[in-house]
């Protein structure tokens, strides 16, 4: 590997014009200078084009009709000139030595294919989560070799990604050849395209993490979809895709995948029953959950509850909430 590899930094944006200057500036202020900046504007209707104008001589800017996050990131990958790819969402930031420390790690340890960093989460006024890795509390379960702040995961992580997604996309540095090999983001998935990509990468490639806060991720109402049905549907699509892949790895983890799918259907059933008050749709989801995992805790109970006449069911809910 060259001692100073070049990096293609891909920034996808959609109506995040107000955040773009600070995002781009955080890349321009990197102590590591061997990079290009690619900004993919996914059909923004705000003033992104005007805001980006002062940066035109320092970035590669491309506008496309709105196609979603996965498609915009893929467009950036296809435009990238260099062997290493770094992603950065338009509302997130890097600390000045983020790339320098990542490049040092992959240069010293060429076995690494994908390297993430720790992160903090912030809103417009304060830090809301100081240590992303500490909040996840996952790595004690994994086989790891330690090199100071750098930790190389020695096992393939397919099983881990079934349970959790510890990868913050804006912290990722990855070999472009890995993406060319296993495919880019699946733009047909409405959400969770990143976790789908990590699941596919985890079948054969080596992950590592730097336990330093080198990425700052913004949290705000624009990326809060937890009160809608979409995250539930996306997780079901994600794990159905993994379950149907059918390689030896999926067969090995068949039980874990089935339980995960059961939990996804259970959670969607719970959402239908208690948030949307739709018993029939809830019943269908609980039934699917039981098909994947007949022993799932509480699933049979809630499935049976969907047959209770709605006035009686709602009355029971009111009485238990008093």
Which tags fit this structure?
322 residues; alpha/beta; Spore Coat Polysaccharide Biosynthesis Protein SpsA, Chain A; Serine Threonine Protein Phosphatase 5, Tetratricopeptide repeat; 2 domains; eleven-stranded mixed β-sheet; 14 helices
Notes on the structure:
The chain is an alpha/beta fold and 322 residues long. The protein folds into 2 domains: 217 residues, Spore Coat Polysaccharide Biosynthesis Protein SpsA, Chain A (Alpha-Beta Complex), CATH 3.90.550; 92 residues, Serine Threonine Protein Phosphatase 5, Tetratricopeptide repeat. Helices cover 43% and strands 20% of the residues. It is built from 14 helices and 11 strands. Strands 1, 2, 3, 4, 5, 6, 7, 8, 9, 10 and 11 form an 11-stranded mixed sheet that branches. The radius of gyration is 22 Å and the shape is globular. The termini are far apart. The mean pLDDT is 91.
**Distance separating the two termini:** 65 Å
Largest sheet, in brief, is:
11 strands, mixed
CATH fold descriptor of the largest domain: Spore Coat Polysaccharide Biosynthesis Protein SpsA, Chain A
The percent range for helix content is 40-55%
On the 0 to 100 scale, the average pLDDT is: 91
Low-pLDDT residue spans:
none
**Which class do the helix and strand fractions yield?**
alpha/beta
Radius of gyration: 22 Å
């Amino acid at each position: 590997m060259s001692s100073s590899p070049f990096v293609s930094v891909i920034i996808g944006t959609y109506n995040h014009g107000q955040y773009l200057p600070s995002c781009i500036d955080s890349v321009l202020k990197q102590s590591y200078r061997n990079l290009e900046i690619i900004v993919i504007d996914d059909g923004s209707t705000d003033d992104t084009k005007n805001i980006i104008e002062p940066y035109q001589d320092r970035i590669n800017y491309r506008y496309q009709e709105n196609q979603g996050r996965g498609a915009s990131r893929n467009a950036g990958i296809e435009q990238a000139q260099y062997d290493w790819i770094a992603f950065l969402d338009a509302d997130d930031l890097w600390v000045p030595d983020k790339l320098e420390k990542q490049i040092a790690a992959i240069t010293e340890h060429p076995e690494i294919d994908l390297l993430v960093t720790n992160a903090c989460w912030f809103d417009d006024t304060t830090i809301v989560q100081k240590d992303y890795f500490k909040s996840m509390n996952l790595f004690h379960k994994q086989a790891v070799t330690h090199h100071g702040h750098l930790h190389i995961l020695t096992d393939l992580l397919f099983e881990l990604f079934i349970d959790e997604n510890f990868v913050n996309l804006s912290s990722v540095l990855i070999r472009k050849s890995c993406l060319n090999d296993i495919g880019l983001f699946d733009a047909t998935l409405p959400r969770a395209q990143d976790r789908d990509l990590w699941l596919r990468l985890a079948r054969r490639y080596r992950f590592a993490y730097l336990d330093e806060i080198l990425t700052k991720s913004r949290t705000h109402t624009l990326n809060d979809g937890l009160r809608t049905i979409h995250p539930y549907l996306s997780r079901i699509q994600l794990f159905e895709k993994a379950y149907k892949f059918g390689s030896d790895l999926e067969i090995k983890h068949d039980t874990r995948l089935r339980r995960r799918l059961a939990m996804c259907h259970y959670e969607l059933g719970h959402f239908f029953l208690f948030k949307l008050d739709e018993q029939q749709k809830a019943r269908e989801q609980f039934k699917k959950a039981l098909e994947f995992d007949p022993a799932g805790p509480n699933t049979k109970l809630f499935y049976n509850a969907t047959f209770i006449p709605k006035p009686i069911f709602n009355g029971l809910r009111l009485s238990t909430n008093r």
